[in-house]
Amino acid sequence: MELVQEADYRFRIDPHGAMRVPGVVFASRALLPDAEKSLEQVANVATLPGIVGASYAMPDIHWGYGFPIGGVAATDVDEGGVVSPGGVGFDISCGVRLLAADTDRHSFRSALSAVMDGLDRAIPRGAGPGGVWHLTGPGQLERILRGGSRYAVEEGHGEERDLRRCEDGGAVADADVGEVSVRARQRGLGQVGSLGSANHFLEVQYVDEVHDERAAAAFGLALGQVCVMIHCGSRGLGHQICTDHVKAMDRAMSRYDITVPDRQLACTPVDSPEGRAYLGAMAAAANYGRANRQLLSDAARGVFRGAAGARLSLVYDVSHNLAKIETHTVAGARRTLCVHRKGATRAFPPGHPDLPDDLREAGQPVLIPGTMGTASYVLTGVPGGDAFHSTCHGAGRLLSRHQAARTVTGRDLRARLESEGIAVRPRSLRGLAEETPEAYKDVGEVVAASEGAGLCRRVARLVPLGVVKG
DNA sequence: ATGTCC
Length: 470
Hints:
Elements: E1 4-7, E2 10-13, E3 23-25, H1 36-45, E4 51-62, E5 69-76, E6 82-83, E7 95-104, H2 105-108, H3 112-122, H4 138-154, H5 160-164, H6 182-189, E8 201-210, H7 213-219, E9 225-232, H8 235-252, E10 268-269, H9 273-308, E11 312-319, E12 321-330, E13 333-342, E14 345-346, E15 365-368, E16 376-380, E17 390-391, H10 401-407, H11 410-419, E18 423-426, H12 429-434, H13 443-452, E19 457-469
Parallel strand pairs: 3-4, 18-19
Antiparallel strand pairs: 1-2, 2-3, 4-5, 5-13, 6-10, 7-9, 7-11, 8-9, 8-19, 12-13, 14-17, 15-16, 16-19
Helix pairs in contact: 3-9, 4-9, 6-8, 8-9
The chain binds one DNA strand through helix 8.
């Protein structure tokens, strides 16, 4: 795959074969080792009907199902543009929530161990069932799928203010519960309020560097402040919805005369029965993921209150795996686009009308979970930019789970983290080893490349005090 | 990511 360098941190893949638009990759050469497979996926996405602008890739690009992880693709809804479940991924609405404590790391130090033990008991995690909420019946699951974080807050698991600090006010309105299969519901029933496994985590962190004082103040962050970061998604429910709708679209595609270079790019027009069905089910999973993060926040708040006498205020909650219908100006014209972000985070600039009043001047908080034991970042959107107000989502994997687990034992990794002063509460030592920092790109380099490409600006760097993992 | 293959 030939990459033409256009600027620092910006490469172009010229259209060839069935590509309708170019590929644009925001990265440095150093961030693209062995990227051939994922760059081919960038080119494949550029063949989708109705794609607008370019098939974009963020600096944390790596190989994924059909679309690369770290990919952004927008299609024009009024021009036959398609929606593809592979452009969202299996973990629909996977995302990050950051809460800021009313304490700094020095005052907090003596409480850390008790807080970690409390979180160890309070946070359900790992593969399979288990969640903080035990549903009273199927009607309650439907209310979660329609109401997301808003429903959890209505039930007493949070504050009204939380909802103003959530993307979409904590729930999207267009969930179609009828498009969520019985099997997806069954899988979702017992996992409401759970972390899951792999790179999902809950971390106790503190603000280690502030890069932008004004934005940090607007977000409620200050140097030394203790924070809680929660990274999780829609568990088995979202996974099953992706499986169901990929299958349905794979069968339906030929009726729309759509051919794709890879079956994993199965898609139909946004404005088709199959497209609307997927988007309705995806919205339900989006709400499930948000309720999930709201309930885990509530559990963490209880632990912080009891073990440290500390309060947690929501900084923001944003997904990095979603397709959204958004209005963007393209070549001077307002167009209705279906923006797929898969391992890419929405990053609204200052002044965007969808931001709450108290964030309008600073821009949207963008939450970047780092690799376990390293740093995480808070960024903000910037004016102009490219890729439909999107930026990176994390470090990006380099080694497979199997390769990672061969480099270190879970026991040794835990000892290493503890010796660095990071408390670790793993559910499984094997799972811990699979997440060793060596398996990932350097999140600092990913963030620097994203900023260098003009996609976002750094606000703060966070480092871990304690890790809760599946 | 995921009842890591219905």
